[in-house]
User: Fold this.
Amino acid sequence: MKLLRIDSSARNASVSRQLTAEFTELWKAKHAEGKVIKRDLASVTFPTITDEWVSATRANPTEWSEPQRQAIAPSDAFIEELRAADTIVIGTPMHNFGVSWPLKAWIDQVVRIGKTVEYGPQGPKGLLQGKQVVVISSRGGSYAGGSPRAHLDFVEPYLRAVLGFIGLTNVTFIHAENQYRPEQAPAGKAAALQLVAQAVAEPVRETAASLRR
Assistant:
């Protein structure tokens, strides 16, 4: 069993990092022989999506030029990490109602025709299937369903759509709400920790039963 832990907050002591760390420790306790791969996106210098990058995705690798090979290498590495993982936990703060910029940069590297998604007569088909994904976000306020700010949550709908596009449809979302509100932050974090423990103890296996937390 392999767990891929992905962090994307710029803050080393961020709530999202604390929660992915807790998930990892509980997962390791459950899978004593399991292997954990850590990917800290905040420490990655992401390459710009250039003409060489785009042309490499459309060419046979045996015909790549050296600039194309260098441009596409980080994307290949990120994709191989995804392929190797059985479980993926992703941590992100909510920034300006969306995901952190390092997470968006990573997504742009891993969504690739022929690698993680392909098109056929029936349309697009994601190629990264059969994996459990847990997305853990921290937010300054509350964006829970039914709340006055729910319509401003572009983290969960975006990630559910783009992860599903590459075949990652078994996704559980856990949100630590109100982290910029001192009187409410401890309760929001405690509630998220409970859901983290539940996600490790009772992983959702069937897409149709995926939780919206």
Summary: The radius of gyration is 18 Å. The chain has six helices and seven strands. The CA atoms of residues 41 and 106 lie 7 Å apart. Residues 207-213 have pLDDT under 50 and may be disordered.
